[in-house]
Amino acid sequence: MVGCIRDSTIFFLESKATTNCMTKTATDTEQRDCLHCGTASVDAHFCPGCGKIQPVTPGSDHFEFFGLTRKLCIDESELEKSFYALSRQFHPDYFMGASETERRASIERSSKLNDAYRTLRDTIARVTYLLSLEGYKEAEKKAPPDLLEEVFELNMQIEELKTARNDGDEDEVANARLALEEALAGLQEKLAGIDKQLLRRFEDWDSALDRHAATAEKKTVLDRMSELLSHRSYIRHLVHSMQEEL
Predict the structure, then answer these.
(1) Across 114-200, where does the E strand assignment appear?
(2) How far apart are CA 68 and CA 76, in angstroms?
């Protein structure tokens, strides 16, 4: 799995983003007054005025929920610490004697917390989620251009293995299995290479945010990550099919 650790400040997809919808910030979400004391512009887990738990803010995303910008290189250990700390604060058991509004808010925030943590702690899920936030949608798997001829050969090898099994030819089965195992190792190397390329794009994206880069530059990075995920998904599907045959 790809990893990318930085200080926390924490599909193969097809772009449908427009130049004015790139990189929403926390200020874009709907803010509202506290339902209990009326403190203005409450945008926190707990009201700074009365200290009571707040309903989940409509439009908030997983990054915002953890107080993070939409960067891809995160401090995973800090994310885990935040998760467990918030889990204790939101736990419904602490709100058994509270109002119905507070009990409902604790359940909402606990659910949101679990979804956000499950997404952000996984590198691929994190970048996939970021792309969805930035206006990208799921697209068909696409084979890397340099893999097209190899895919044809792999399909032939899979058919040869099936034929040898049907014929009961153990020597041919062994030879076909060996060929597929070697091809599988090559595909796994390609996956590792794609993961390294993704890491570099993560750094490009975070740098673009820090520099307040132009929309066109950020979109170029997003497009490249989308393409890499498409290739990664295709190869993973191919690897899974080969493993089933082996």
Answers:
(1) 136-138
(2) 12
DSSP lists the bridge partners of residue 15 as 136
Other Cβ atoms less than 10 A from the Cβ of 83: the count is 18
Domain definitions of the chain by residue range? 13-137, 141-245
Q: How many CB atoms lie within 10 A of CB 119?
A: 16
* Element holding 154 (H helix, E strand): helix 148-167
- Rounded to two decimals, what is the model's pTM? 0.82
Compute the distance between CA of residue 191 and CA of residue 34 in angstroms, rounded to an integer: 48
CATH number of 13-137: 1.10.287.110
**Alpha-carbon distances, residue 99 vs 46, 49, 95, 96, 120 (angstroms):** 15, 17, 8, 8, 31
pLDDT in tens, 33-86: 998 998 887 788 999 999 999 999 888 899 999 999 999 999 999 999 999 999
DSSP class of residue 122 equals S
